[in-house]
């Protein structure tokens, strides 16, 4: 049997908007067969409110705001479930609430807020009886509780704004009213009458009045003092007899009315004057600054004028105000004074209609600056002769000294001559001439330079390994600093040229740095120090040591119990080759050949039943050692009984080969010497290197020829 639920017949009926306190009635029905199971529930709740078959009625009596929300009707038919939703709204209202301060002082801000909790939000209006229409008319909705709110703000309230205010809230077709009484309290500010400026010695009279009912308590005080000068009600009079400068300042009238305190301030100025005062040094040295200040403590500030006796010129005319003491001040400032500035100076102070005068005598003392004569630059071995003189009366005491020394070298009156015979480099430096005149001390300094030179010195390691860094420094102690140049003998190129000054001892210095040196860098290097019109040269012999592994061509061959081995090694110094095999033998032959930096060692030894497959060759030149295991190649004879004859034949062949190699080396050496003798002297070191390389190639060809001969004879690879 098949049943289909018709969606058009799945419906919810009832009123979804109800007032708070009314009843909510909703019916959910589904037409189906068999009848569907109907359940009512509320969103956010796991409790089923009601269930029935075919039709279910949801009834809630005396609804509240908590009953608002979404309700769900669920219909279950066989294995099919259908859902329908409905939103229920509960309308409500609360009594208007007024918050805010209803008693405020005149001049403050009246701020009252009337709020009504309701749904939908109420329209809130403010009004005042016997006044204009509502001061505020607008609906406010609080997002948290859906209430309307309106705020009445009156800035700077006055006494006329006291009275009753009405808040009216209109919710749907209902109107609610709430009342509030506002009280504005006030007092009038104090005011002060009297003269704010009095002369020193007069009477100060001030009166402070405050309009209020009941009368306010009026108190007089002075800023910076905790003492009450006078107090009264409604009005208070302050009288100060025979005022002084200390009575100047700010006076405060304080009015206390109920719990309110009001203040008014009054600044009092006492007019006064003092005798002019002159400060400054009245005795100055010639060339210094004359700086005199004339000041008069007074109010208002006095007009100060400077004048020199027997002169009609006013030196300075200006009013100066010092904020701390309200005094007038004027400064006469004369730079680089001379003896003509000596004399009497007059300071005149004009205060209102009064003139005051003060005098000062100025004395200018003088001495002349020390003068130094003589040659300040001398050669080493010459005499230093310097004279210091000072023009003064009475004569000054002259003393010679050297900087960093506490010893006086020479002293005299009026003039002193310093003589240092046979000057040395140590006599260079700063010399000081000190002139003492009465209580004054004058100094003059001079720098003495002794020209000298020393023999250049080379520091650094002259023997370096191949691949290391050659670092040589040539320095020449002299003044002025020497020009240092590096050069390699048989080369016209300056390796390094520069003028270097050592800050510690004033010497020239130049450093030669060559990275990754090779054997070609061995030789003599020349350092030339150019000093003024002279040049001094020193030499350094550089040796590059190197060592290489066993060279190609080394190996061993065993034939008919005769073992022949060749070991070739290179290096500088020339390496030595040793055969550990020979320790166990008493009969053997060793032939050693040398070509430039190459050593060729050939050993022949008779062995019986030699079981090893290699022979060790050890080469060493002091910079390194190399141990090479040479592989033994075996050549078996065709007939064993002929081994003795063949052994002798091989020995003859080997001796012939070695003789040919030696002869080739001798021919190469003679050829090389002949070639060098016939070289032109203008050829550079590069051509020499090319020639040497050519000769090495010939020697190598000779060795290869010998090797081929051995291969043809003995079958050695």
TrEMBL record:
A Pfam cross-reference name: Ig_3
Keywords, ordered alphabetically: Disulfide bond, Glycoprotein, Immunoglobulin domain, Membrane, Transmembrane, Transmembrane helix
Record's subcellular location: Membrane
One GO CC annotation: membrane
InterPro entries given in the database record: Cell_adhesion_signaling, Ig-like_dom, Ig-like_dom_sf, Ig-like_fold, Ig/MHC_CS, Ig_sub, Ig_sub2
Its membrane topology: Single-pass type I membrane protein
Parts forming coiled coils: none
TM annotation in the entry: 649-670
Chief site of localization: membrane
Feature: compositional bias, Basic and acidic residues: 683-717
UniProt domain Ig-like: residue ranges: 18-89, 96-183, 190-269, 276-363, 370-449, 456-543
Disordered: region residues: 681-717
PANTHER family: BASAL CELL ADHESION MOLECULE ISOFORM X1-RELATED, NEPHRIN
UniProt protein name: Ig-like domain-containing protein
Upper lineage: Eukaryota, Metazoa, Chordata, Craniata, Vertebrata
């Amino acid at each position: 049997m098949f049943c289909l639920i018709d969606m058009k017949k799945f419906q919810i009926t009832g009123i979804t908007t109800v007032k708070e306190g009314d009843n909510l009635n909703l019916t959910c029905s589904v037409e189906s067969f068999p009848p569907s199971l109907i359940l009512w529930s509320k969103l956010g709740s796991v409790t089923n409110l009601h269930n029935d078959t075919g039709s279910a009625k949801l009834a809630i009596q005396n609804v509240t705001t908590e009953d608002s929300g979404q309700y769900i009707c669920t219909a279950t038919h066989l294995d099919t479930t259908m859902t329908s939703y409905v939103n229920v709204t509960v309308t409500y209202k609360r009594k208007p609430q007024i918050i805010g301060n209803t008693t405020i002082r005149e001049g403050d801000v009246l701020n009252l807020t009337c709020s009504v909790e309701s749904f939908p939000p109420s329209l809130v209006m403010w009004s005042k009886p016997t006044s204009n229409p509502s001061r505020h008319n607008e609906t406010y909705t609080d997002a948290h509780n859906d209430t309307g709110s309106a705020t009445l703000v009156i800035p700077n309230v006055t006494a006329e704004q006291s009275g009753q205010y009405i808040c009216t809230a209109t919710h749907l077709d209902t109107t609610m009213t709430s009342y509030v009484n506002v009280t504005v309290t006030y007092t009038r500010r104090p005011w002060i009458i009297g003269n704010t400026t009095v002369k020193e010695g007069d009477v100060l009279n001030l009166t402070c009045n405050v309009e209020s009912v009941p009368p306010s308590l009026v108190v007089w005080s002075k800023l910076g003092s905790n003492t009450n000068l006078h107090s009264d009600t409604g009005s208070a009079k302050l009288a100060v007899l025979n005022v002084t400068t200390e009575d100047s300042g700010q006076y405060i009238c304080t009015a206390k009315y109920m719990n309110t305190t009001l203040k008014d301030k009054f600044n009092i100025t006492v007019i006064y004057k003092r005798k002019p005062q002159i400060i400054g040094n009245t005795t100055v040295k010639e060339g210094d600054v004359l700086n005199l200040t004339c000041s008069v403590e007074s109010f208002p500030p006095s007009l100060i004028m400077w004048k020199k006796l027997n002169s009609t010129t006013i030196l300075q005319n200006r009013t100066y105000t010092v904020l701390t003491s309200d005094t007038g001040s004027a400064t006469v400032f004369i730079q680089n004074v001379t003896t003509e500035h000596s004399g009497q100076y007059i300071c005149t102070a004009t205060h209102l209609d009064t003139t005051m005068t003060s005098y000062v005598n100025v004395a200018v003392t003088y001495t002349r600056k020390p003068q130094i004569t003589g040659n300040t630059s001398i050669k080493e071995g010459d005499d230093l002769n310097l004279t210091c003189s000072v023009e003064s009366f009475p004569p000054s005491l002259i003393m010679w000294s050297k900087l960093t020394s506490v010893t006086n070298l020479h002293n005299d009156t009026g003039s002193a001559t310093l003589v240092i015979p046979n000057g040395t480099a140590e006599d260079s430096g700063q010399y000081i001439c000190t002139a003492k005149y009465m209580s004054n001390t004058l100094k003059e300094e001079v720098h003495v330079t002794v020209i000298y030179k020393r023999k250049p010195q080379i520091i650094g390691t002259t023997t370096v390994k191949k691949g290391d860094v050659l670092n040589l420094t040539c320095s020449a102690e002299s003044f002025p600093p020497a020009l240092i140049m590096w050069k390699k003998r048989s080369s016209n190129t300056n390796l390094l040229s520069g003028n270097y000054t050592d800050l510690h001892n004033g010497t020239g210095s130049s450093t030669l740095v060559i990275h990754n040196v090779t054997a070609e860098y061995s030789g003599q290097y020349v350092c030339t120090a150019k000093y003024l019109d002279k040049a001094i040269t020193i030499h350094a012999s550089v040796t590059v040591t190197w060592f290489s592994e066993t060279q190609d061509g080394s190996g061993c061959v065993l034939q008919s119990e005769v073992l022949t081995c060749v070991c070739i090694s290179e290096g500088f110094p020339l390496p030595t080759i040793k055969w550990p095999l020979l320790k166990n033998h008493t009969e053997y032959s060793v032939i050693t050949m040398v070509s430039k930096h190459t050593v060729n060692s050939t050993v022949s030894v008779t062995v019986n039943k030699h079981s090893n497959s290699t022979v060790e060759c050890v080469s060493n030149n002091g910079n390194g050692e190399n141990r090479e295991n040479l592989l033994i190649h075996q050549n078996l004879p065709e007939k064993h009984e002929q081994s003795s004859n063949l052994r002798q034949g091989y020995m003859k062949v080997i001796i012939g080969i070695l003789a040919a190699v030696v002869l080739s080396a001798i021919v190469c050496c003679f050829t090389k010497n002949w070639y060098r003798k016939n070289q032109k002297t203008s050829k550079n070191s590069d051509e020499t290197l090319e020639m040497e390389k050519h000769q090495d190639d010939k020697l190598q060809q000779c060795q290869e020829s010998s090797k081929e001969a051995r291969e043809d004879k003995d079958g050695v690879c």
